[in-house]
Design brief:
- This protein has about 200 residues and is an alpha+beta fold.
- It has a domain at about 95-200: PH-domain like (Roll).
- Helices cover about 55% and strands about 20% of the residues.
- The chain has helices at about 20-45, 50-75, 120, 145-200; strands spanning about 10-15, 80-85, 85-90, 100-105, 110-115, 125-130, 135-145.
- A four-stranded antiparallel sheet has the order 1-2-3-4. A three-stranded antiparallel sheet has the order 5-6-7, covered by helices on one side.
- A hairpin with a 2-residue loop joins strand 2 and strand 3 (about 85-90).
Length: about 200
């Protein structure tokens, strides 16, 4: 996977991408535009035949197709990468540009999902909203099955907090054991010192 070149995915629990409806919508729009280009070309070539029409509309059609490929890659590579310890926003912004935002689960305050527009309901897609400390928000748009995705997010967060709590309790217990050993050692030293004071050689 291309994302592995930019993000450490060895501990990945799930990758959330955009809804397939988004890709279908882009493809339909591109096909319609290509068809319209062909109709315009046919009309112009019929009314005033010329060799250059082919080159003009061929270049225009190629440009539309290249734009669709770039848009497809931009959408396909956008994702949320969920691991045991953190969540990564991977956003591909252009051909050679991308950005990542990585947050520990304990930095996340709330995780929710919603639909803003009627067309979102029509195309069966939702937005996931992740709110961090200080009311910083990170939305991830056009997601399918939001309840399932949010449930997975919440489960990983709870598992992380549980492991963190257990680690804190373990560290406190170890600190307490070390303190008790130190107290016992100090007690032995004090006892030995008092014995020497009481019963000098």
């Amino acid at each position: 996977m291309l994302i592995k070149k930019y993000v450490d995915t060895k501990d990945t629990q799930r990758i959330i991408g955009h809804s397939s409806v988004v890709y279908i919508k882009k493809a339909i729009i591109t096909i319609v535009l290509l068809f319209l280009l062909y109709v315009i070309f046919a009309v112009l070539n019929q009314s005033s035949p010329a060799e250059y029409w082919k080159w003009i509309f061929w270049c225009a059609g190629l440009a539309l197709f290249i734009k669709w490929v770039i848009d497809f890659l931009n959408l396909y590579l956008d994702c949320l990468i969920l691991s045991k310890d953190n969540i990564t926003f991977f956003l591909w912004e252009w051909l050679l540009e991308y950005k990542t935002e990585i947050f520990s689960w304990n930095k996340i305050n709330t995780i929710s999902w919603n639909q803003i527009w009627f067309r979102d309901k029509l195309f069966w897609k939702w937005d996931i909203l992740i709110k961090l400390e200080f009311d910083t928000e990170f939305p991830f748009n056009d997601v399918a099955h939001p309840k399932k995705q949010v449930r997975k997010l919440m489960m990983l967060k709870e598992e992380f907090l549980s492991r963190q709590k257990q680690q804190v309790e373990k560290d406190l217990s170890e600190d307490n054991d070390r303190f008790n050993v130190l107290v016992e050692a100090m007690s032995e030293v004090v006892k030995e010192y008092l014995d020497q004071k009481t019963y000098p050689h």
